[in-house]
Amino acid sequence: MTKCIIRGFGRYAPKRIVTNFDLEKFVDTNDEWITTRTGIKQRHMAAEGESASDMATEAAKRALADAGMKAHELTHIIVGTFTPDSMIPSTACRVQQKLGIRDQMCVDVGAACSGFLYALETARGYLALHPESKILLACSEVITPRLNWEDRASCVLFGDAAGAVILTGKNAAGAEDTPRVLDIMLKADGSLGDLLMVNGGGSADPYKLGTIVDEEYFVQLEGREIFKHAVRKMSAACEEILEKNGVDKKEIDVLLPHQANFRIIDAVGRKFDIPAEKVFSNIDRYANTSAASIPVAFSEAVETGFIKKGDLVLLTAFGGGFTWGAALVQF
Ligand SMILES: CC(C)(COP(=O)(O)OP(=O)(O)OC[C@H]1O[C@@H](n2cnc3c(N)ncnc32)[C@H](O)[C@@H]1OP(=O)(O)O)[C@@H](O)C(=O)NCCC(=O)NCCS
C-alpha cells in the first residue's frame, strides 16, 4: 500500500469574531446556556463576500509554505465542503484559479462534518493509483450565511474556517515518512439524513425565479437525536479501527475528534478511558466548522506542540448524511 504522508498543515479563520455575548444582542440566547450545553464561547464569521474558496486558498498557501512546496507542483486539489462557492464550478476549481495554477485534477467532496476524513480517504485512493501525486486537501466552510438566525437551537452552534494539508505518496530522498496516515474507516446511513439538512435550493426542492428564501434554505437539525448518534457512532468507529489495526486504546497519545459539542467530545474520550489532557479541543474558539473542524484542530494541535513527534493520533468525525468515521495517524 502506498503511504499517505502529511507534508504540511495550514489553517485560516476570518477576522471577525462573534462571542456568545454578541449573539445575546440579536438571538434569544445567553452565554451561560451556550457554554454549558456546547463549550462554545465564540466563532469566526466570514466577511461579506468572503467565499469558501477564498478561505481554502489562504489555508492552502499556508500548508504549501509549511510543506516547502510551490503551488505548481500540485497534481490534485480536493476540497471538502457543504458550503461551496457555487454549484458550478467546483470550489476546488476556484481554489486552483486563485492559486494561479492549471491542469491539476480538481474535485469537491461532500460529506458534511465528516468531509475531511472522506476527502482524506479519497486522496489515499489517488495516491495508491498514482504514488507520485502531490495533493492539496482543503476543507472550507462558510456556514454562518446558511444559518437561520431565528432558530436559536441551531444558529449558535456553527462558525466559519478553513484547514488544509499537503499529501504525498513518496517522500523526498532522505526525508521522513511521517506524519503518515495508517488507516481510515468510513460509514454512512442515509436513512437518517433528514435529521440534519440544508434542503432548499437543491434538485429535490428547487427554487423558482423569485422564490422567497425560507427556513428550508438554512441548516436544520434535530440536536438531541444527533447528539446520541454522534457519541455512539464515533465511539464505534474508533473501536473498529483500533481493533482492525491491533491497537490498544492505551496506546493512543492524542484523540482529536470533530468539534461539534464539547459534551460529545468528552463522552467519546470517556468511552475510551482517554484522559482529558490527551483529548484536543478548540471548540470554545471556533464552534462547529463542519469539514474544516478536524484540519483546523489538527493544525493547531501540531503548532502548539499538543501533538508531538512519535504520537499515535486517533481522529474521528460525525456529520450529516449521516456520515462518520475514524482515522489513525502516526505522527
Ligand atoms: C443542540 C444541543 C447543544 C442542545 O443541547 P440539549 O441539552 O440537547 O438541549 P435541548 O435541545 O434539550 O434544549 C433544552 C432547552 O434549551 C432551549 N434552547 C435551545 N437552544 C437554545 C439557545 N441557543 N439558547 C437558550 N436556550 C436554548 C430549548 O428551547 C429547550 O428549552 P425547553 O426545555 O424550555 O423546551 C445538543 O443537542 C447538540 O450539540 N447536538 C448536536 C449538534 C449538532 O447537530 N451538530 C451538527 C452535527 S455534527
What is the CATH T-level topology of the largest domain? Peroxisomal Thiolase, Chain A, domain 1
Structural class: alpha/beta
Main sheet strand line-up: 1-7-6-4-5
Tell me the number of helical segments per DSSP (H or I, 4 or more residues long): 10
Tell me the fraction of residues in β-strands, as a range: 15-25%
CATH superfamily descriptor of the largest domain: Thiolase/Chalcone synthase
Q: Output mean pLDDT.
A: 96
Please state the overall shape, judged from the principal axes of the Cα atoms. Answer: globular
CATH class of the largest domain: Alpha Beta
- How many strands appear in the DSSP assignment? 13
The poorly predicted ranges are none
First CA to last CA: what distance? 18 Å
Assigned CATH architecture of the largest domain? 3-Layer(aba) Sandwich
Bound molecules: coenzyme A
Radius of gyration: 19 Å
Largest sheet entry: 5 strands, mixed
Helix content: 25-40%
SSE run:
EEHHEHEHEHEHEEEEHEHHHEE
Total domain units: 2
